[in-house]
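The freezer alarm interrupted the setup, so I double-checked each line after restarting. Inputs confirmed:
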Amino acid sequence: MHILLIVIGLPIATGLAILSIPARTKGLREVLSILGMAANLVLVSTFFGKDIYLTLPWAGGGIDLSFRLYSFNSFILIAAAALGFLITLYSASSMYGKGYSRLFLAYILISFGLVNGALLSDNLIAMLFFWEGLLLTLFAMIAVGNKNAFRTATKAFIIVGVCDLVMMVGIALAGHISGTLSMSKMAVPMTGMGGLAFLFMMIGAISKAGSMPFHSWIPDAAIDAPLPFMALLPGALEKLMGIYFLTRISLDIFKLEMHSWASTLMMTVGAITILVAVLMALVQKNYKKLLSYHAISQVGYMVLGIGTMTPVGIVGGLFHMINNAMYKSCLFLTGGAVEKEAGTTDLDKLGGLGLKMPITFACFIITALSISGVPPFNGFFSKELVYDGALERGRIFYFAAVLGSFFTAASFLKLGHAAFLGKLDSRNSKVKEASWYMLIPMILIALSCVVFGIYNGLPIDRIIRPALGNAIHGGHSFAGFPKNMALVAGTVVVLIAALLNHLYGVKKTGKGLGAVDHIHNVPGLSWIYDKAERGYFDPYNIGRILVKAAALILSSLDKIIDFFFSNVVVWAADTTGLVIRKMHNGSHKMYIMWSLVATVIVIIFLMRTM
Amino acid sequence: MMPSLLILIPLFVIMAINLPKHTGRRLAFYLALALFATQMILAVFHQKLFLTNEAVGIDRFFRVDLSIDHLGVVALVCMGIVSISSLFVSRYMPLDESERFKFTNLLVIMSIGMCGIVMAKDIFSLYVFLEITAIASFILIAFKKDIGGLEGAFKYLVLSAIATVFMLLSIAAILLVSKDTSFAAITEALKVSGSQPVVIAAIAIFLCGLFIKGGIFPFHGWLPDAYESSPAPVSILLAGIVTKVAGVYTIMRITMLFGSSASINNVLLLLGTLSILVGAFAALGQDNFKRMLAYSSISQVGYIILGIGAGTPLGMAAAIFHFFNHAMFKSLLFVNAAALEKETGTVSMSKMGGLAERMPVTGTTSVIGILSAAGIPPLAGFWSKLLIIVALWQAGRYSYAAIAIFAGVVTLGYLLTMQRKVFFGKLSAGLDDVKEAGFGIVLPSVILASIVVLTGLLFPFIFQSFIIPVKELLQH
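Predicted 3D structure, all chains:
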């Protein structure tokens, strides 16, 4: 069997094996899932720097199973596999003994087969096949959660499914225009239908990544789905896949120009996503929900970076993608550790956990500093690159990004303060550190955040630049400390402002959780927050209202049609039948008359016409 | 072998069962059964048996001119199947032995008449055989000698008399231009003097005579009364085959004889469509089971007439196919009507209900019958209606095709209403003792239902081996 097919088939086969293991064999499924993910990691690690092309006949008509491994997708594969392995290790421990762990672990494995397939596919239809398969595991993984999970899973399924459908149309359009479905051979101009095709495929890509306005299932899933799901999919995998595909379509298939409308559109979407999601994150009172809004907000930086279509922006966007996958999944894992030990993620009931869970707290500090963009952690460097690209295209995008950083820092100060510092709640007096199976993944990810920060040349020069090729970055290296000191100064000012803001808020309300209440209570803004919390701005809810309205209109139309058929038509038929029956009064004289009159008419007609 | 055997054998059977007084009566049923079976076998294997066109043997002696073609075979097979069904049903109806014997006699006489109609190659012989059939029918309709039966027979008699006058007049007029009454001579004569007013008038009234026989709107007045009031085995015969052979098959023959002309086709199409619609709408609100089926017959005959009226070989082939299908499903429904009448003692649908649980076989075969009648795939009726509509479409008669499709909905409407009223729902009061009808009624019902299903499923085979040859034959 071909190595590429093994990479796709092995995780799926392992997942199916886990599903078929009897429920009472404890521990076996955990071991099997960890071994499966380890094998996956080892396999994809051997791919690094290789070029493999494989094509198998499939449906015909330009639709075949063609796979292409090259520098770009190989690094995404490795990143996904590494995070996947660690998160599986974590889930195996945190879920041990729970009823749904068998399903969940199996779904992780199956998802990885599909992720590998989607990343490796060169034919767009083959990619769609795996991409849509992920929709099913996404649904299934959310649905195993708490009692509301099924509804949330449905919401996610509908939002992502509709966006995938839009992408499908885009792929069909692009395939029609270019005459091929192979990504490496496609070249579609951005004019006319080509532009529409790009728009549709972009919607598919950024909705996968969780950008606004296709985000609203993520905060719901944060509450309802099992926590490792958040760390794995919205935290890491979906960002990797969505941004990978966005880069592929922008650079390979459509070859966007720097000042095209599509570039500006992507930057606008990115900037809005950063700001709106981070403002929502700011006021959250729940550990997981707060993180979930950041999962959305951070996508904004990547879309903004790639949308600039400048070399520095693209490199920054991709770098930010890897960094975010690391620190965001680690942050979710710390949330999971807190939830497992303290039994809640409600920030009101937490506080002072720092001494009880020192390692978790340390990992949280490192990753929170990363996401806030504090030097020398990895988030700082990728954000600086994105700022650089954004500034090149327009100040407003830069300001939006920097303002986003301010709120990000402020909200993580609040989160850390509320959860780990302050007074220990009496209910949490027995809390202890999480198990080593959960800690090791967190420590490893946190450490790599440091490594990727200090030695940022490693990911940028060794991985991202080879992946993009010389044509994009022109041989220029973006590694090392940022050259533009004005940008660094701006970042430092913003971080200090966030700290001051935090201190002001804490002083005013007397507790960490209240650190941003003065922003929350700004007149006007508080009204918007209130509405947003109740879901008034959720595109899903708006869509549901529209669908309900349409259903109402259509059903009244249907009632009219029903009335027509079940009353008017029936009446007409009955009356006709009645009249005809009345005519058959049984009189043979009448019948003879009919026959004779008709005969005369037939004779006259034939005489006239023949 | 000679086609006249199909006439002579029944004649011999009549003699055989009547001469020895007691044995004959007992044997009558089995002899008649054997006769109809023989009739079908002879018809199916006619190509081997009656290959020669020369008159041989007795044919030469009697100087009769009979022949069988594809259309004839279908009619003969239908006759065989329907007559056997009727015979079986008659055995289980409340008739005493002597009445049953009379019935068998009349059935055989009727079959002589119909065989003659099918094989006649002479317009006067055709008329004679029509009369034989009609006379047997009059007696059969009034068989119970009740007031309804007599009334029905009387109406049929009166209108048949008019038809007789029409046909005789027409033959007389045709003899003005033709040297004798054989089809060949008439065809020759019409080529020369086909446009003379007297000839056209002759054609017109001959057709009108046949319309009366076939019960086509507005010549159909006698038909609902006759079907409704005749005993069950007779309604099976009348609906399944008698009016079809006397009225519809003859129209096919006569239009082929007179040659296809646009005017005649227009008349056929118009009357066919009116029959379909009037029959269907009249059936819609009927409470009497048999009367509903009678109107349904008018409607279905309309389809056959539409197929003929398309004026193309495909239309004719479709018409004869629907002829066969109609004979099957309509006899099936009338056999079921017999079962219901026998078991519940009524034909009023409003008094029935929920009978499917008491009469499962009848209920099931009834569903097959109505679905075939309404033209639901893959049953037989669907294919023949489809072919008729295709033929109409190809002939450019789009509006007629549209009406034919529309009427299918009405057909389904009244037949499903029937099914629901009679078989579905809760069992009506007073029907607790109802049980499945006897073997003699269930057997034909099942056989007919199987034929309907098989014809539908084997349609590709039938299309290849029957429709296409008929079409090609007619093209010459």
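Quick read of the result. Residues 285 and 414 of chain B are 8 Å apart (CA to CA).
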